[in-house]
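Report of the visiting student (M.T.), summer placement. My assignment was to run the structure pipeline on a short list of targets and document each run. The first record concerns Translation factor guf1 mitochondrial.
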Amino acid sequence: MSYSRVKHLCDTALLGRVLQFKVCRRKMPGYNMSYRVLRPRWMKCLPVLSSSFRSLSTQPAKDGVDLSKFPVDKIRNFCIIAHIDHGKSTLADRLLEMTGAIAKTEKNKQVLDKLQVERERGITVKAQTASLFYSHDRQEYLLNLIDTPGHVDFSYEVSRSLSACQGVLLIIDANQGIQAQTVANFYLAFEAQLTIIPVINKIDLKNADPERVESQIEKVFDIPREECIRISAKLGTNVETVLQAVVERIPPPAGSIDDPFKALVFDSNFDHYRGVVANIAVFGGRVKKGDKIVSAYLCKTYEVNELGLLRPEEHPTQKLFAGQVGYIVAGMKDVKEAQIGDTLYHQEQPVEAHPGFKPAKAMVFAGMYPMDQSEYPALRSAIERLTLNDSSVTVQRDSSLALGAGWRLGFLGLLHMEVFNQRLEQEYNASVIVTAPTVPYKAVLSSAKLIKEHGSEELTIVNPAQFPDRSVVSEYLEPMVLGTILAPETHTGKIMSLCLSRRAVQKNMVYIDDQRVMMKYLFPLNEIVVDFYDLLKSLSSGYASFDYENAGYQTADLIKMDILLNGRPVEELTTIVHRDRAYSTGKAMCERLKESIPRQMFEIAVQAAIGSKVIARETIKAYRKNVLAKCYGGDITRKMKLLKKQADGKKKMRRIGNVEVPKDAFISVLKRKEK
Ligand SMILES: Nc1nc2c(ncn2[C@@H]2O[C@H](COP(=O)(O)OP(=O)(O)OP(=O)(O)O)[C@@H](O)[C@H]2O)c(=O)[nH]1
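After the run finished, the structure tokens were exported:
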């Protein structure tokens, strides 16, 4: 068997089955077995093989399960939503263990957080699906669980996942109580008209106060306290009640097996061997291997090569039926073919397409360039594939004088941008330069010529280098967000002054109980995007939480500020600032750059300028060789001559010297230190 064939089989889990057979025959533990049955040439596949084995060890039962025995009324589709770190992934682990989807071992921790970046950062960034088999009242149920991220930057993942569900488990930490993302996630589920089951987690903690949390839930969400379930996901306390509540309270999906086949693509990723793997929610009918299906988006026909359940690893089955959630591989080789939000139907039975998802609104834009222009094609394909898995990123071609051809990418927030960058490096081995992030400003043009050129009076500016001059603009607009802050009452003073310093306007303030306050502020997005959350956390000793939603645009007095290194403008560091902030921002950026740029053999002048007027300056001193070291005593004029020669040399170097700006300086220059 050839190497590529083995690899292919591993990926399609066929080899997994062959090896499983051998494991059973020789009665050996699956893990070690993999090394024994391999021939030396196959050893190269070990990483892939071991992951196949891991998946085998995590899904012992229900091989070849007949999904037709789960009619729609025996199916429940639900999401787990919560604020960051309230225990979604831990509860998902318990549910997987209790239903036998994974083995109960120490190693099986946060199994749904599969990405390296998720494990390293300890956060979920990607929603993950797992199908569970559960018996209740002597009836077998198929439960499809979707674990979602908690951070505001990934809320698009949450809203998409909700479209495949009829209910949610809203997890709330028994110690921290309701937090900003709890409120935001509650409203997402509420607007989608889903059944909400409040689950109070971490009751094992010493400071847990489930009573208080129940009162908060009653007050803020108007859900009676009797509906709350108290659990400890870590210890498994009362988790069985959660499963029962899922079956009893969440309605089964609508749709019938007799309807024409209709499925919504709610997520997808790219596999090197099989092409696009789409996660689907089947709204009606059934689909099987070999069926000819059509993508409503492109009107292209495909043949189904593989389909199955996610448990949480792929688990191929023969068919998928109405109400079920699973994956499908249909020979889509191009990333553009798998649009998230697309509808799939049978070739002979066209159906009305699902309206799809509202496109994610990018909040932060940054330039992304290859380290070396020769890496451009590889980076382009990496970005295309990663954006398939993360459809909330917008991509536009861009180029810069200094960095060559690249892209301008739009993200939902700074963490989203950092995670995307990290995934590019870890999953695609791509090394990139990311420029200073900016928010999408708008300019209302007054020049008829420009209006004609752009085809509209309003111009959105995602690249500060293209900021139009005041002379051709009647007004500038900046994006606003409505921020929600939840914090202990004792910290409100400090939080209010932080918000004021960010040009925020208070809209509302209510007590959610006798200790915690919920405040609403209207912020200019630019003021919160880089470092606001970190500062809020640090000045509230980690107790405040923050979430925001889009609040349109407002007129603002904006100007473009250039950063010059030795008199040369660095286009990638150009920023758009509010006029009142220009001096303080310019000064802070120069100071930050002074800290981030390493000293070189020549002096570097770091300047911030508006037009031709320099508003701030810092100097990075040159390394200096002691040219007088060998001059023992002697005439002063000789010393002066040596020093002058050195100074002339430095001047020349400074003129021709190229200042290298370190990669991370582009973001760090924008972070402000709060006094
Ligand atoms: N004491 C205690 N700790 C818990 C419990 N449930 C979760 N934790 C801990 O809380 C931390 C966060 O848990 P996660 O499951 O990663 O939380 P999450 O909500 O999935 O986090 P994000 O995906 O980042 O939003 C981990 O250190 C868990 O061990 C619990 O019932 N009791």
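The CA atoms of residues 440 and 462 lie 5 Å apart. The pocket of guanosine-5'-triphosphate is lined by residues 82, 84-90, 110, 123-124, 149-150, 201-202, 204-205, 232-234 (CB under 6 Å). I thank the supervising group for their guidance throughout the placement.
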